[in-house]
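Long-time lurker, finally posting.

We've been working with ZKSC1 protein (Myiagra hebetior) and I want a structural starting point before designing mutants. I don't trust myself to interpret raw outputs, so I'm hoping someone here can both generate the C-alpha cells and explain anything notable. Sequence follows.
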Amino acid sequence: EKPQGREKPHKCLECGKGFSFWRSSTLWGHQRIHTGERPYECSECGKRFRSSSDLLRHERIHTDERPFRCPDCGKGFKENSSLVMHRRTHTGERPYKCPKCGKSFSSSSHLTRHQRRH
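Top reply, 14 upvotes:
Generated this for you. Predicted structure of ZKSC1 protein:
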C-alpha cells in the first residue's frame, strides 16, 4: 500500500498519471511510453531504450558483469531483482501467499503457476 498524504501534483498530459515530485527525467521518461521515443541506443547491438537506466541494464547482456553480489554465498547477478529472489533461498522468505489454500511462495510467478492448478 502506498503511504498516505503523498500528493502527486505533476500530471502526464496524455494519461493523467501523477508524479509526486518534479524530476524531468521521471516525467519525460514516462511520456516516452506515449510517444514511442527511444533515444538511448546500445552501441553493441543497436537496440533502443526509453531511459538510460534501461540501456545500462540491457548492456550487461553483452558482458559478464554481475555487480549485485549475494552477501551469503558470493554469487553475482546482473540485476538487483534477481539477487533479491536468490536471497530468499538463504532466508526462507516466502512473501507470496495463495488466498485459496494459504500456501506461500518465494516469487509471484510461482504463486501464479500454483493458482492455475486450483
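Before you design anything, note these points.
The first strand starts at residue 10 and ends at 11.
The radius of gyration is 19 Å.
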